[in-house]
Amino acid sequence: MEPSPNIPQEQSPTASRTLQVDFTWKGCKYLIFEKDDPEAKPIYIVDTRLFRPNLVFTSAVDGSQFGSGTLHPVSINADCEIRGQAVKLEALSRLKTKYTHQSRAFSKTDTPVPMTWTTTWDLKSWDFICLDPRQIPVARFSAKQFPVKKAGYLEFLGSEANNNEAAREEIVVTAFTLFNCMALRSTNMLNLFGAAIARPAKVGNIPAEETQESVKAQHDMPTDAMKGTEGDENAKLSTKV
User: The domain containing residue 209 runs over which residues?
Assistant: First the structure.
């Protein structure tokens, strides 16, 4: 696969921060904390549940619940709640992993702006990349394909994601909800029916097909280069949800 051209200097993320994601069977939780810090305590805790909401997001700093995520047995869309605001993750494609959600945290006005999610994958990891309205990467959740304890890493890219707590909370909620949604889709036959009858969403005036092309043409991660080809709903993932 040919390397992607570099993002123009003025569009490159100006900062990055990487969090480590661990999964513990005790309570079936994800623990999110600073990477490469043996003394680090969790910043966010994600509880997984069989019943709705399927994911509950808590700040480990003050114990407050800031979000939730709900999956559906048939529909390939997912629902989130962030600080009391409803956010819908809508599929842009029936088969490919392309989603969109309306963001208040990344908007400069009172009107939400469209964010898009796309993926790349290889035998080691499944990467979920969040793009802002200009199709610039603002976050990446890299989920390991065969985790034991370390489930993956979450990267915040650029000044907005790094300096805005509301933006980070939104990324955490939407990233984990989308990841678990795709994990469910890859193992649930009913979601195949849901995909067949789904009406793909649109991202403003941007055709859904252009989101992945934008990643290939502009994306230059500050860490490892993007890998593999676009994931689809049949991608194999052995992560416990």
Answer: 14-218
DSSP label of 158: H
Specify the CATH number for the domain of residue 174: 2.40.160.200
Residue of 101, 64, 100 whose CA lies nearest to 84: 64
What are the pLDDT digits (tens) for 4-22? 333 333 344 457 899 999 9
Whole-angstrom CA distances from 97 to 20, 111, 162, 234 are 23, 26, 25, 10
Report if residue 227 sits inside a domain. Answer: no
What integer pLDDT is reported at residue 71 of this predicted model? Answer: 95
pTM: 0.77
Instruction: Give the total number of structural domains in the chain.
Output: 1
The more confidently predicted of residues 229 and 65 is 65
Phi-psi region of 34 (alpha: psi -120 to 50; beta: other; left: phi over 0): beta
